[in-house]
Design a protein that fits this description.
globular; two-stranded antiparallel ribbon; 9 helices; 261 residues; mainly alpha
């Protein structure tokens, strides 16, 4: 493929990505509504039904449902910010359409693995909280600590390095591209790993506040996209991190300042 056909394909790729993203957002909205509901727990927090199996549903079926919804949500949230890499590959390396698809497949395999870890952790927490009241009462302060830690990561050199890769992937692409299906898939996995390292703190904020909270989901998706494409994206990452730290500290300290009953 020459550079001219690759360039002429860009509008079609962008249009297709927009359609897929919109479709995944619609599916995510319906899925979030289907998983709506919560249970009030000791400690003053509400446990989302997202982590629990439906009546008569096996543990495997519940996990499969969560991971299916998670992957659709990841496509909705992450495809716009992954699109520049796809366009770069098509433009510079004249990749065939199937190689571009495999690059995205590798990218979203990483986010599926992230979802597996998130589900295992979330299920473990809610199971322990339902079984032991002491665990349930620790969840609110633990959530506050998680927000502080996630916000702190946003301000670290590791975050800046991973964000720099996502914002300027050209040198990575030139060094790592291998022709063929296996090369495209491997490139997608490596790029996805950098992206996960860049965005895990933002995703952790969403997980601890509300994994299927639609306004929060949209806000996190917007921050991820703007961090990667805006010229002041690195500054935005620090601002978001500082806000998360402040919110976490307030949630951690405020209960200690309330009068005892």
């Amino acid at each position: 493929m020459s550079a001219r056909p690759a360039a002429s394909a860009a509008p079609g790729i962008v249009a297709a990505a927009l359609v897929v993203t919109a479709g995944c957002w619609i599916a995510t909205v319906y899925g979030a509504r289907a998983m709506a509901g919560s249970m009030h727990m000791p400690g003053g927090w509400a446990m989302s039904m997202t982590w629990m199996a439906m009546p008569g549903q096996s543990a495997a079926a519940a996990a499969l449902m969560f991971l299916s919804m998670w992957e659709v949500m990841m496509v909705a949230m992450m495809l716009p910010s992954a699109l520049p890499m796809v366009l770069l590959v098509r433009g510079l390396r004249a990749a065939r359409p199937q190689e571009s698809a495999l690059l995205l497949a590798g990218y979203f395999i990483v986010w599926l693995a992230f979802g597996v870890v998130a589900y295992a952790f979330g299920l473990g927490v809610v199971t322990a909280a339902m079984r032991f009241e002491a665990v349930s009462r620790v969840v609110p302060p633990a959530t506050a600590v998680a927000l502080v830690l996630a916000g702190t990561y946003q301000c670290t050199p590791w975050k800046r390095a991973c964000l720099a890769h996502c914002r300027r992937p050209l040198s990575f692409l030139m060094a790592s591209w291998r022709p063929g299906a296996a090369g495209a898939l491997a490139l997608g996995v490596r790029h996805g790993a950098y992206c996960a390292a860049c965005c895990w703190a933002l995703m952790a904020m969403q997980l601890v506040i509300g994994v299927m909270n639609l306004p929060l989901m949209a806000a996190v998706a917007d921050v991820i996209f703007v961090e990667k494409v805006w010229r002041h994206g690195e500054a935005l990452a620090i601002v978001v991190g500082m806000v998360s730290v402040v919110v976490g500290l307030v949630l951690l300290v405020a209960p200690l300042m309330l009068p005892a009953h």
